[in-house]
Every structure is written in C-alpha cells, then in structure tokens.
C-alpha cells in the first residue's frame, strides 16, 4: 500500500509541476494563467477534501470494528472470570 501511495503522490505532484511549468512557458497572458492556476488549485483542493473525507470514513469504520471486537473480547473474559468464581464458590461449599 505504501509503495502505491508513493506512486500516486508522485504522479499527482509531477502532473501539477508539469502543468505549472507548461503554463509559465506558454505564450498565454498572465491573467489567463492566473485564472487557470486558480481553477486548478480549487479543483485540487476539492479533490483533497473528498479524498480526506473518504479516508476519515474508512478510519472510523476500522476504529469501530476494532472497538467492537475489543469490547466482545473483554465481555467474554469477564463472563469466564465470573463463571470461574462461581464454580470455585460452589466447589468450596460442596454444592
């Protein structure tokens, strides 16, 4: 996953760098370049927000899953401990 993530970021930043350099070397007027860069920056910002939201949702799902598993495990341990104590008391009382 880490290697794929690094590749993704490399492609993303390389594309943005290429876009910026290409625009600066082109013969368009400065105003048009600023407008295009502004729009692309907004698009990138929106995409990062969507990406961040999706990651947050996945992290929340994983956290919830781990929390549920941990609670179930602890509940089972408590039940086993209580059963052990009850059996020990019954043994001592001879019932």
Short descriptors:
95 residues, mainly alpha, 2 helices, 0% strand
Beta-strand residue fraction: under 5%
Helix content: over 70%
Q: Please state the overall shape, judged from the principal axes of the Cα atoms.
A: rod-shaped
The total of helices stands at 2
Description:
- The protein has 2 helices and no strands.
- The chain is mostly helical.
- The protein is rod-shaped, with a radius of gyration of 29 Å.
What is this structure, in a nutshell?
By secondary structure, this protein is mostly helical.
Set out the fold topology.
Blueprint: H1 2-25, H2 30-93
């Amino acid at each position: 996953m880490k290697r794929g993530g690094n590749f993704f970021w490399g492609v993303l930043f390389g594309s943005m760098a290429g876009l910026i350099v290409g625009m600066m070397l082109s013969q368009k007027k400065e105003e048009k370049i600023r407008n295009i860069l502004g729009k692309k920056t907004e698009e990138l910002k929106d995409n990062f927000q969507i990406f961040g939201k999706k990651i947050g949702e996945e992290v929340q799902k994983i956290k919830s899953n781990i929390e549920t598993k941990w609670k179930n495990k602890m509940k089972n341990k408590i039940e086993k401990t209580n059963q052990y104590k009850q059996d020990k008391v019954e043994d001592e009382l001879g019932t």
